[in-house]
Write a structure and sequence with these properties.
Number of helices: 14
Radius of gyration: 32 Å
Number of strands: 17
Shape: globular
Distance between the termini: 127 Å
Low-confidence stretches: 1-20, 22-66
Mean pLDDT: 88
Strand content: 5-15%
């Protein structure tokens, strides 16, 4: 009798456990239904799976439950997708991204469509039509930061003469760009003009559409020095919410104003966006910075003058601007740390050069990134055997850019030399033939606010 009693109790306990299990299952089912109605099941990209089901749920036949509500694309949908694809490929082709356009077309799944076939054939034909640029003459022009307000730069004070000789105005630069384009120049990456084989510099093959000429643009002293601040220049560079490099200009009350036409970089970015055919594969130019007053308008080499928060902000801004420049097709170069007159008169000692180079590499490069380009201060050049030049090259600056109206280039030993022509007041007013020889008549672009040279 005792044994039978225990058996009955065991059966009762088993029934209770079973009922409890059913209750749990029903509760879970109810919870899932509630979660589905509240759209709690999401895809990784944040969108809701059709029908409110889990991304891994399936129908009774083993197929995805979401397929039950899939609506086949209409003919209009397909036409719109195809039109978008062709527009994207056309933009790639304008910027000479031929391989990328081919890859996009071949992977679209619509090669049987006549419009897609035609576009693919056109892209391949354009790439096949590229020809080597073999002319000895290459082109490199340079500017300093642009004058925004001529009434402040040309106001008769002690700085006017220097600005008039060595600077270019916003108006002049904006007028130059269409003339470059009309005369078949195309922005080109200086690092793609040279290749190093077994440590020796050699001219790299340049493939361009017939008639196009490679043009390098560089900007010296992108630092916005203190002396420039009251004279009609930008205050600093910054980055907008879309990643575009912008200029910050101070108004009369010292308030920041974001502009897109305050220096070469944002102006050229906008021009290339409108005319992608002016840039070989998105390249823009070279931004050259010194170091003795930081970079891009931020005084990161005088951090001791600021509190911790300002220090961190400035360092972060330099890194942000440098990244945005590189992402949008710009290169960054050294323009020396000191830009001292001992460069200009070539009295620089090895000790001074080591100090100069060491500070740029140690205090500027960590925030703007590495580079193998040195834009020569004052345009000074050195012989290949000068121990100072050897020190520059041995410290990684294998591309060296001095100044000369002839824009000669040379690939020698382990370095590449590319001379630059300054398109500023002294050249346009005093030596206009230098510009006419290669580019355009400077009379077409001269700012009427520019005074005569004294």
């Amino acid at each position: 009798m005792r044994y039978q009693s225990k058996s009955k109790n065991s059966r009762r306990i088993g029934i209770l456990y079973a009922l409890a299990g059913v209750a749990v299952i029903l509760a879970i089912f109810a919870l899932v239904r509630t979660a589905s109605s509240l759209d709690l099941f999401k895809k990784d990209d944040g969108t809701t799976v059709p029908g409110g089901s889990s991304p891994t749920s399936h129908g009774g036949d083993g197929t995805s439950a979401s397929q039950d509500t899939t609506v086949p694309p209409t003919a209009a949908d397909l036409d719109n997708r195809r039109a978008k694809l062709l527009d994207e490929c056309e933009l790639l082709v304008k910027g000479y991204f031929y391989d990328e356009a081919v890859e996009k077309l071949q992977g679209c799944g619509e090669l049987e469509n006549p419009a897609t076939q035609s576009m693919l054939a056109e892209v391949k034909s354009l790439k096949a039509a590229l020809v080597p640029y073999t002319d000895e003459q290459l082109y490199h022009v340079f500017y300093h930061s642009l004058i925004i307000d001529t009434s402040k730069a040309f106001d008769g004070d002690a700085m006017e003469s220097g600005y008039n000789m060595y600077m270019t105005t916003v108006s002049e630069f904006e007028k130059m760009l269409p003339l470059f384009l009309q005369n078949n120049f195309i922005l080109y990456d200086i690092t793609q003009l040279v290749e190093f084989k077994d440590g020796k510099a050699m001219r790299k093959e340049i493939l361009l559409p017939p008639g196009k000429k490679p043009l390098v643009i560089s900007i010296d002293d992108v630092n916005y020095y203190d002396y420039m601040k009251p004279d009609g220049f930008a205050d600093r560079l910054d980055v907008d919410k879309d990643g575009n490099v912008v200029t910050v200009v101070l108004d009369e009350n010292g308030k920041d104003t974001i502009t897109y036409d305050g220096d070469v970089m944002p102006i050229l970015d906008a021009f290339v966006k409108e005319h992608p055919e002016f840039s070989w594969r998105g390249h823009k130019g070279i931004v050259a910075v010194t170091g003795y007053q930081g970079a891009f308008g931020y005084r990161i080499t005088d951090l001791e003058d600021y509190d911790d928060a300002k220090q961190k902000w400035m360092l972060a801004k330099v890194e942000e601007v440098a990244a945005a420049l590189r992402n949008s097709g710009w290169l960054i170069a050294s323009h020396s740390y000191t830009h001292n007159q001992y460069w200009n008169n070539k009295t620089m000692t090895m000790e001074q050069l080591k100090y100069d180079t060491g500070r740029w590499l140690g205090e500027i490069m960590p925030y703007v990134g590495g580079t193998d380009i040195l834009i020569s201060p004052f345009g000074v050049s050195f012989s290949q055997t000068d121990e100072r030049f050897r020190y520059i090259v041995d410290n990684g600056f294998q591309i060296y850019c001095p100044v000369s109206s002839l824009m000669h280039t040379s690939w020698q030993n382990d370095n590449f030399i590319m001379e630059r022509l300054n398109l500023d007041g002294i050249t346009m007013l005093k030596n206009p033939e230098r510009v006419k020889k290669f580019f355009f008549d400077p009379a077409l672009v001269l700012d009427p606010a520019r005074p005569a040279l004294k």
